[in-house]
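Field log, afternoon session.

UNIT: design team B
ACTIVITY: writing a sequence onto a fixed backbone
BACKBONE:
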């Protein structure tokens, strides 16, 4: 089975899901009290508008190599642009997706089950941006919580992000994410309860040469047939590390 077929099967299985209210975040609806409508983009024009805002406002930490997602007419778990619209148009945007980069690495090493489990359990917020004239209004926090809830309702239990600015640090703190020091390496262990297979994901250290950068990992929901452990390797200048070097900080599942 090719990697694309694996991802298509996962998308098809999730496309018919029903949103829940207890998946680690708010119900995915508009925010009439604040006159803000937060949702995935619905047209290609909206997708282009959100992408432009992200590219313009995220100066450090934005990956120009990321492909721009298209607008989709379904609710599958795939790379998705999220927008926040107010009375004067788009005021904030975000890019959230399954952790395809780690899954691709597993596939390149011939470990299909690890790739499938990663796509099921781990999401990534690639960036959040708020228009300058709408900062300090709480919009960034609302869209951050929306991204967590959206991923959780698609059965992800972990949300990864990389903090490169003080504003991003505040958003991650307010949403209860684990903010790791710059000199440690996050570790995620995933176990399939049905087959007994497992994998260990080492996310790698953050390079500080281009500016401040540190991992943030949020527990956003419950697992579905998986048991997940979140940990970290301590600071060391002499890898490789082994299982005995991991400090476990969170557990999700049975």
């Amino acid at each position: 089975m090719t990697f694309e077929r694996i991802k298509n099967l996962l998308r098809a299985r999730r496309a018919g899901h029903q949103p829940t209210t207890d998946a680690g975040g708010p119900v995915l609806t508009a925010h009439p009290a604040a006159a803000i409508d937060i949702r995935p983009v619905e047209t290609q024009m909206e997708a282009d508008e959100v992408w432009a805002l992200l590219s313009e406002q995220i100066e450090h930490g934005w990956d120009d190599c990321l492909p721009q997602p298209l607008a989709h007419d379904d609710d599958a778990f795939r790379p998705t642009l999220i927008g926040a619209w107010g009375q004067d148009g788009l005021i904030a945007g975000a890019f959230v997706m399954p952790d395809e980069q780690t899954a691709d690495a597993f596939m390149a090493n011939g470990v299909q089950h690890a790739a499938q489990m990663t796509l099921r359990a781990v999401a990534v917020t690639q960036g959040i941006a708020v228009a300058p004239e709408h900062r300090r209004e709480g919009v960034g926090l609302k869209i951050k919580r929306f991204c967590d809830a959206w991923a959780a309702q698609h059965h992800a239990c972990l949300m990864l992000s990389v903090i490169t600015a003080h504003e991003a640090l505040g958003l991650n703190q307010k949403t209860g994410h684990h903010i790791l020091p710059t000199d440690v390496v996050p570790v995620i262990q995933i176990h399939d309860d049905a087959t007994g297979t497992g994998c260990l994901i080492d996310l790698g250290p953050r390079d500080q040469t281009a500016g401040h950068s540190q991992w943030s990992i949020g527990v956003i929901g419950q697992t579905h047939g998986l048991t997940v452990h979140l940990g970290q390797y301590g600071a060391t200048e002499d890898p490789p590390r082994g299982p005995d070097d991991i400090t476990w900080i969170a557990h999700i599942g049975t």
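LOG NOTE: Residues 139-153 form the longest helix (15 residues).
NEXT ACTIVITY: expression trials, pending approval
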